[in-house]
Each structure stands twice: as C-alpha cells, then as structure tokens.
Write a structure and sequence with these properties.
The chain has ten helices and 14 strands. By secondary structure, it is α+β, with helices and mostly antiparallel strands. It has one domain: Bira Bifunctional Protein, Domain 2 (BirA Bifunctional Protein, domain 2, 2-Layer Sandwich), CATH 3.30.930. The strands form three sheets. Strands 1, 5, 6, 9, 10, 11, 12, 13 and 14 form a nine-stranded mixed sheet that branches. A three-stranded antiparallel sheet has the order 2-4-3, with no helix packed on it. A hairpin with a 2-residue loop joins β11 and β12. The longest helix is centred in the N-terminal third of the chain and has 20 residues.
C-alpha cells in the first residue's frame, strides 16, 4: 500500500571504536556489519532463479530506459535525455519504476512464462523499507490466474527462507512461520476486522467513489481527514494506520479483492463487479508483493492511464507520457495472463531479519 521510501546515509557498526555516521559504506569496519546479510542475499537470489527454473520460466531482460516510467499518480521517476549518435535532438526518457510494460510486450510477442530481477528506480522514496534504486522481481504467466501466483509466492518465500537455513521469516525479531498455507483476507474483511469499517458501504460510484461516507467512517474511529482528501486518500489513511500493521502477523497474508477504482492494470473480477483481480502479499506488516489478473482491454487501459495522468497533473503539476507502443501491443492482443511484482530487497530483509533495506544492499545509493 505504501509507495513512500526512505533511509539514512548508510549503516555503521556500533563498537568501542565506532566510525562516524558519515563513514562511507565501503570502509571495511562498516561493511563487515552487512557481510553476512549480503552473502545471504546471494543465496536468496540463487534460490529465486532455481525456483523459477523448476517451474519452466525463462529469465528475460528489458531496457531500463523507457518512454513511460509508469503512470501511477504518486510514483516519481528519474529522467534523462537520450542523445542520438548523429547529434540530432535528444529524446526524453525515464528510468522505469517497473519493467511491466516491456515484459507484457514479450507476452504479446509469444513468451508464456517469464521472470526478471530488474533494477528499478523511484525518486523521492527513502526509508527503512524503501530505497531510490532497488531490485524488483516480476513474473508473468499466460493462461493463469491469481491462485497460480499465490502458489508461486508460497514456494518462493519458503525457498528464500531455506536458502538462509530457516523455515520461517523474521520481522523485528519475530518469527513468521511458513509451514502452513498462507492466509487469504479480502480488503472488505480486513477493513471490518481491524477498523470496524464497512468499506463497500462507503462507495457510491465504483469507478470514482466520493469521499463523504468514508470520511465519516474514518473520523468515527479517530482518523483525521481533510476537505481535500479523495476517497482513495482516506482509504490509505485507514489502511496504513489500522490495517497494514496487522497483516501477516502470524503467517503471510494475501490481501485480496481490491475495489475496482483501485484496479490499476488489473482486470475486473468476473464474479463481483465491485472488485478487481488484485492481491498484495504481507509478512509481519511489510508489503512484499502486488499481483494482478492482467487487464487486456486496450481501450479501458487507455482510459485508466488518461485518468491517472490527469490526477498526477492536478496533484503535482506534471505527468509522464503514456506508452503508445504498450497500448498498441494490447490492441494486437495480450493473452489472458497474471503477473506480480515482488521486492527482492524486502524479501532478503525478511529472510535474514535485517531491520533496514540498506543492510541488504551491496552498495547503497549515497
């Protein structure tokens, strides 16, 4: 749920001869504090590749430089100019926030099971669980659904833990066992269970709900709102304060059945028009992955992109281009498929028990 990132300059060990806080990460006494976690990271990435190889996936690579870095309104990209060899005018390009568009083009081209561990970039984001440059594991299956992705996730988390010699994951020193089936909890159930809010009773327009009733529900449980808050803003205020900390407390949790207004690139659920085919995976309150039953309707995708661009323009005064080539690929024919993005650095944090994302990065962005 949380797209905000943050962290400090770099870790330092706390010993009798402490290096100063500004000591560079490459100093041997500073680096030593992270070495075990980094070697574990290498074991986890090896286990990831083995897990996908066992499922007949092929590893792909796509360019980081893209016409569109991603359209989600709150994502901020890094941008540059691509200078032609002939000295002509430069072309504005952006470092991708996800390899999604290019990977889906590969599905249109004929691939059926693909994965990628991609370096991705998100500006203005830094915290204990976020970094401006990080590694995203993204994979797609044609002819598959969310159940298939959930099974992939269960196998992947167990493989990551096993690579570190464990049968559980760790969050703030607390073990999260992996020996049972993961929990499945709908957004509707989560809001009622942890916040006492009947979420869908606050929605008057599936595509663009107004904030009135959700604002009232939020204020009844002590969460402040402002007149400028949209329905989605209030949704996240409640979710981040009352719901997210409880997700995956005793076992990993799939948070399912997101409101259709928050579908992003996912298709509507054919059994319930109020919700999209989307889930997020949580472990110990940490968001680890976001999955879609992928939208294949080019016209609907264009409508969503244009709405998100308009919102970004309203909120921040600019927007990124829509990838017309991606829409052309959808029009050509994206097969029925499901896809998911998972934060590799966060997975390594959970497998090793690291408290900060920079503890599991070989060389953090300074």
């Amino acid at each position: 749920m949380d797209n905000r990132h943050g962290a400090c300059y770099g870790p330092c060990i706390m010993t009798g001869s402490n290096p100063p806080q500004s000591a560079p990460w490459w100093r041997p006494d500073v680096f030593a504090a992270r070495r075990d976690a980094l070697h574990a990271r290498a074991a986890v990435t090896k286990a990831i590749r083995a897990a996908f190889d066992a499922r007949d996936f092929i590893e792909v690579e796509t360019p980081a430089l893209q016409v569109s870095p991603g359209i989600e309104p709150h994502l901020m990209a890094f941008s540059t100019d691509l200078e032609p060899a002939d000295g002509g005018p430069g072309l504005r390009r952006h470092l991708h926030t996800s390899p999604e568009f290019a990977m889906k083009k590969l599905l249109v081209a004929g691939e059926s099971r693909i994965f990628q561990m991609a370096r991705v970039w998100r500006n203005r984001e830094r915290s204990d669980t976020h970094h401006p440059e990080f590694t995203m594991l993204e994979w797609y299956r044609t002819g598959a659904g969310l159940d298939d992705l959930m099974a992939d996730c269960e196998a992947l988390l167990r493989a990551a833990a096993s690579a570190c010699g464990r049968d559980h994951l760790l969050v703030a020193g607390k073990a999260i066992p992996l020996d049972e089936d993961f929990e499945r909890l709908s957004i509707e159930e989560a809001f009622f269970l942890h916040a006492g809010v009947d979420l869908f009773a606050t929605i008057d327009d599936d595509r663009d709900p107004s904030p009135g009733r959700l604002r009232e529900a939020a204020e009844e449980i002590g969460i402040s709102t402002s007149d400028e808050d949209r329905w989605e803003d209030i949704f996240f205020k409640i979710a981040l304060d009352r719901i997210e900390p409880h997700l995956g407390e005793t076992k990993p949790t799939f948070l399912t059945d997101w409101p259709i207004s928050m579908a992003a690139l996912s298709r509507p659920n054919p059994d319930d028009s109020r919700v999209a085919e989307r889930f997020e995976l949580y472990v110990g309150g940490v968001e680890l992955a976001n999955a879609f039953g992928e939208l294949t309707d080019a016209a609907e995708q264009r409508r969503r992109f244009e709405a998100d661009c308009a919102l970004k323009e309203k909120l921040y005064g600019f927007s990124y281009p829509i990838d017309a080539d991606f829409l052309a690929a959808l029009e050509w024919g994206l097969p029925e498929c499901a896809g998911i993005a998972l934060g590799v650095d966060r997975l390594v944090m959970l497998a090793t028990g690291a408290a900060r994302i920079e503890d599991v990065l070989w060389a953090p962005v300074v």
